[in-house]
Amino acid sequence: MPSEYGAVRALIETVATETFSDLFAPNPVPLDFKNEDWTLAWVAVSDEKIVGVIITNQEWVGDLWVFREHRRQGIGSTLLAQGEAEIAARGHRTCRLRVVRSNAVAVEFYRSHEWQIAREFAHEKYHHPMLELAKSLPGAPAAPSERNLSNFGNHPR
Length: 157
Known about the structure:
- The longest helix has 23 residues, at about 1-25.
- This protein has a 7-stranded mixed β-sheet with strand order 5-6-4-3-2-1-7.
- By secondary structure, it is an alpha+beta fold.
- It is built from 3 helices and 7 strands.
């Protein structure tokens, strides 16, 4: 399992740097792995390599990352559907997430999955414009296909 944590961390560092390096230049993208419980994460695996990850907490999608070369293959959509199902299974009727406003690719991805912009605000630490998106869940959705998804911690949900 330690190698999996390293693979997830490398995935997040790579995608965050690709996505946000201009936002934080000349400094590195600040990432904090200390407070995440990665046993709650789901990973997408292709050819025995972790290529995507999602983690949720309560009604929030905390992180959704997919390697650039694996995008537009349904991996992000599958992970997002898993996260939404998990949030609904907790009894929440609304899912929420935060995204950097300038990350137009991510904003469009979520909007294409019926997420709506709930509010705009300044990041509490870095002050760049952020969006909170929300999606109503009228009922518990059917569980998405778990093909190519693994519970990171192999713990029952």
